[in-house]
Amino acid sequence: MKHWILAGVALLALSGAASAADIAYESPAPVAPAAPAGFDWNGFYAGVHGGYGWGGGTKDADFLDSLSGGLFGVQAGYNYQADPWLVGFETDIAYSGLSDTAGSAALDLNWIGSTTGRIGFTYDKWLFYGKGGIAYGDIEAKQAGLGSDSQWAIGWTAGAGVEYGFTKNLTGRLEYDYVDLGKKTIFEGTPAQSEAGVTTNAVKAGLNYKF
């Protein structure tokens, strides 16, 4: 009888130990992976851009009314991000190959630049933005027998673009801009005096380094 009692006690002890082992080694519940951190757009940046522009140039006549050519320049700016929104400012300046010729006359846009505010929406490594502000450029008219007359013009610009973060410091962008530089008087005081102005559309691709 004593042996049966001892055997029962031993069996109960073994059952308790097995249950405790099951509790101790129970598999933990799966943990959901952490969401990836969004791209940090904050801070200063600088970069380069290139593209193609086309538009109108007026010279009080039906000629010299269309300009086109390449663009290459630099830009710098600052972004402040408050997820998912972004605000900032940017200044850019570019060499312009936009020009038109008609016989012995020509109209060139030698340089073009802008200072703009930006507002955008961020999604992970993407930035979708609009921009607007002041634009400036150097309009040069040429006429055989009179030489050339260069005028610095100021107007306005508006545009939109998309930017992507390749690394934490390098981003790339594609942008469209419209620029209206108004009109300037050229060859003032001569028989060729007239009003010249430039409006342009430009598509630009660029790279930025974020500091």
TrEMBL record:
The keyword Signal applies. Keywords: Cell outer membrane, Membrane, Signal. The keyword Membrane applies. Its main location: membrane. Residues 24-211 form the Outer membrane protein beta-barrel domain. It comes from the Bacteria. SUPFAM superfamilies: OMPA-like. It is found in: Cell outer membrane. Residues 1-20 form the signal peptide. InterPro entries: Beta-barrel_OMP, OMP-like, OMP/PagP_B-barrel. Belongs to the Omp25/RopB family. This is Outer membrane immunogenic protein. It comes from Kaistia defluvii.
